[in-house]
Amino acid sequence: MRPRTWVLLLAALFALMQLATVEGRDTPDSKNYVSYALSLTGADEREAAAATIDHYCAGRAAMAHRAQLVDVVRFHAPDPAPRVLEECREQEWRQVEARLAAGDTGGRTVPFMPERFMRIFEVRPGYPLVLAPFVALLGVTWGVWTAGVLITCTGGVLAYLVLRTLAAPVPLALTGMALYLVLPCGTTAMRPMTEGLMLALTLAALWGCALVLGGTRPRAGLALVGGALFALFTVKHSQALFLGACLAAAGVAVAVRRRWRGTPAGRGPVALAAVGCAGVLGTVLVSRLLDYPSVSESVQDLLTDHFARPDRERPWAEFFQLQGNFWMEWARRQLWEPLFLAALAAGALGARRRPAFGVFLAAAACTGILNQAGHPDINIWGDRLITLAWLLPVLGVPLLLEPVLRRAMVPAQGAPVEPVG
Questions:
Q1: pLDDT at position 104 over 50
Q2: Cβ(101)–Cβ(118) under 8 Å?
Q3: Which residue, among 229, 254, 242, has the nearest Cα to 351 in the 3D structure?
Q4: Are 334 and 369 in contact (CB under 8 A)?
Q5: Which residue, 297, 300, 322, is CA-closest to 378?
Q6: How many Cα atoms sit within 13 Å of 146 on the Cβ side?
Q7: 322-347: buried (b, 16+ CB within 10 Å) or exposed (e) per residue?
Q8: What is the pLDDT of residue 371?
């Protein structure tokens, strides 16, 4: 079969697998994005609240039903779903009604939380804009599910395109796509959150880097990187800042290493560094111009449990103390179950087969570390904040397997194309 057929088959298989869990993927923050999307479709605040609460509570009820079926003590008890659904609706409506009665009706999102907390989501229109047409056409449940499948499969296709641009054989490019779908990237991207778009846009930027470093379509590559940074700003502006800074550092590192070895730095790394710096500068200027929540506000949100407690007097001292505690516990857990560390090591070894691009890949993966460092909370719905770091094994492991595949290839299939950077 043609490569595109294999790509479509992988995407279709992934979509079929996701039918096993249509409801119950939401996190508490998902309510904010769904209500934002509903407001973009023209729903008023109460309509958006009703649809969002019904969807969120149906997911909670579905999870309770599934958990009860396998509870060794209560599996024969009555189905808890109706009770959980009713209690959830009552609790959510009680909070929303109180805030609506207090006049908290100024934003696009339904006021599920204090205004200062909701402001964080008001400045992230990217994901709700993508979600809105699906919700309008298919309803909340199937619209959210369909959008998640398409966003996740888009990320898998982008992983395939990056590897093909790096001259990886088709089987290895398909391996990269499969890894993206089955590793935590795919699981996290399916949640109604911003991470799916963040992963896809980061891969789009890496595709642009591969095009620039390969010298085949440098202008298109630079435009792709710039467009990805702009889109990331609308999805989560801190991620645009992280990615721009990391790509700029990677471009400088590649240029300096080449000059150190006595070879020309080349226009590609310098141009990518310039685009990254432009992304950082643009993110800082525009976020200040639009009065986006500051870093200090984010730290207060973390330390006050989403502003449920008074602001901390010495937030930065407490934040850095928490950082030390967090990474010690994180390292202990990783050493206990070292799959993530092993995957990172394998990805790094594979990335060395494309030295220049490998630096940019490692830089993009580092944005996951930075994202997690900005939220040192060990209990934030698994490891979704650090998921971007999984891009290193997604693209690096297929490159690591390249020598094995090339030795097994039949000579009649032709000589491989020269790899990128």
A1: yes
A2: no
A3: 254
A4: no
A5: 322
A6: 14
A7: beeebeeebeeeeeeeeebeebbebb
A8: 92
Please state the length of the chain. Answer: 421
pTM of the model: 0.92
Distance CA(100)–CA(391), nearest Å, equals: 42
Q: What is the DSSP letter of 168?
A: -
Residue type, 202: T
C-alpha to C-alpha distance for 261 and 253, rounded to whole angstroms: 12
Average pLDDT over residues 108-119: 88
pLDDT computed for residue 381 by the predictor: 55
| DSSP type of residue 389 | G
Could you give the CA distance from residue 185 to residue 170 in angstroms, rounded to a whole number?
21
Average pLDDT on 361-368 reads: 96
* pLDDT value, residue 204: 97
Tokens 């309510």 found at:
31
Evaluate if residue 420 carries a pLDDT over 90: no
What is the number of helices (H) and of strands (E) in the chain?
18, 0
Helix orientation angle between 237-260 and 267-289, rounded to the nearest 10 degrees: 150
Quick: pLDDT tens for 243-254: 999 999 999 999
Amino acid at 124: R
**CA–CA dist 108, 52 (Å, integer):** 13
pLDDT digits (tens, 9 = 90+) for 404-419: 887 777 554 444 444 5
Per-residue burial over 187-199, b if 16 or more Cβ lie within 10 Å, else e, is bbbbbbbbbbbbb
